[in-house]
Amino acid sequence: MKKFGILLGTFVALFFMACEGPAGPPGFDGFDGEDGIDGSIFEAIVFEVDIDLTLNPASNTYSFNEPFSAHSIELFPDDAILVYRLEEVDNDLDVWRQLPQPFFTDLGVLYYNFDFTKNDYTIYLEPDFDASMVDQSLVSNQIFRVFVVPANLGLSSKMDKSNIKAVMNALGVAEKDVQRFTIK
C-alpha cells in the first residue's frame, strides 16, 4: 500500500507540473537593443543658433526661419522639436527658458514662440503692441537651443521639459555635443 501511495503521489505531481493555464496578459514592449528598432540608431540632435530676428510689419512680429537642411537634419513624420532661449548668463552659468516664453515690458507683453514642419522651423517674437517699438536688445544677438527629438525614442511624458539639463540627460546629450551656428 505504501508503494501505491508513493506511485500515486508521483503521478499526481507529474500531472500538475505538466498542466498549463491560460496565457497571461502581454507585457510591455521593450527596446530592441542598443541599435534601436529595426537596426536604426536613435540620435537626438541639438544645435544652437545665434540670430537676429527680423521685423515683419505685416504680421507685427519679429521672426527667423530656417530649413532643417541648412544643418543637414532630416525630420521624420512624428519627430518633435523643443526650443529654449538663453535668458542670461549668471556667474558663468547659462540660464535657459523654454519656449513659448512670455516677456513683460513697460509697453506690454511679448512672447517668444516657435513652430516647425518636417522641413523647417520658425522662431517668433510676438508683441501685443506695435512691434516696431520692441527694444532691439530683445531681437538682436539672440541665442536659441533647438532639440530635435526622435518620436520613437520613448521619452517619458513626465520628463521635466522646462529643465534643459533634464532634457539633455534624457537624450544623452552633453554640452560638447551641441552644434553652434551664428547666422546674421
Tally of individual helices:
2
Helix and strand succession? HEEEEEEEEEHE
User: Into how many domains do the coordinates divide?
Assistant: 1
* Low-confidence segments: 34-40
Rounded to an integer in angstroms, the radius of gyration calculated over CA atoms is 28 Å
Overall average residue pLDDT: 83
In short:
With 184 residues, the protein is mainly beta.
Please render the helix and strand layout as text.
Blueprint: H1 2-18, E1 45-51, E2 54-56, E3 61-67, E4 80-90, E5 93-98, E6 101-104, E7 109-116, E8 120-127, E9 142-149, H2 164-171, E10 179-183
Parallel strand pairs: 1-10
Antiparallel strand pairs: 1-9, 2-3, 3-8, 4-5, 4-9, 6-7, 7-8
Describe it:
The protein is mainly beta. The chain has one domain. The chain has two helices and ten strands; from the N terminus they run H-E-E-E-E-E-E-E-E-E-H-E. The strands form two sheets. Strands 5-4-9-1-10 form a five-stranded mixed β-sheet, with no helix packed on it. A five-stranded antiparallel β-sheet has the order 2-3-8-7-6, with no helix packed on it. A hairpin with a 3-residue loop joins strand 7 and strand 8. The longest helix has 17 residues. About 4% of the residues have low confidence.
